Amino acid sequence: MKGCQLVSISFFVLLFSVAARPTDNDCVCTLYVKTGWMMKAGTDSRISVVLGDRSGGHGRGSCIGSPCRLNLTSDGSGWHHGWYCDYIEITSTGPQQPCAQTVFYVDQWLAADIPPFQLTAFRDGCYMRDEPRKHGRNVPLIVGNPESPA
């Protein structure tokens, strides 16, 4: 079941990137979405993702800077409306821009009937851009707590 969810999300991202047909000035963002491992963690709701950069740029259209802000929203529809998002890994690139990678650890249910009883998760790592990175220069920006106990 988990494999089907990952395949369907990957297919949707592939379909979206083919349908968008980027022009020479557009960026390309690839999203890898990891659903949680627990029972009923998958969803059939509509999920939307809005990315933002440090300058406040967001949305669709021309390139934004390195993504450091994430707004993840479920519309709460469907028979399996609850969704547990483990993390989202984003790789973006565009003309005259270096490749950037960000991992947003969401670790949260997007559901009205499971704590924290919210259909939206917001993660902001833009303030972290000026801090020195612990693992070197060419590592992804990590937003959230990747060292949570297993």
TrEMBL record:
Keyword Signal: yes
Span of the signal peptide: 1-20
UniProt-listed InterPro entries: PLAT/LH2_dom_sf
Stated name of the protein: Lipoxygenase-like proteiny domain-containing protein 1-like
Keywords linked to the UniProt accession: Signal
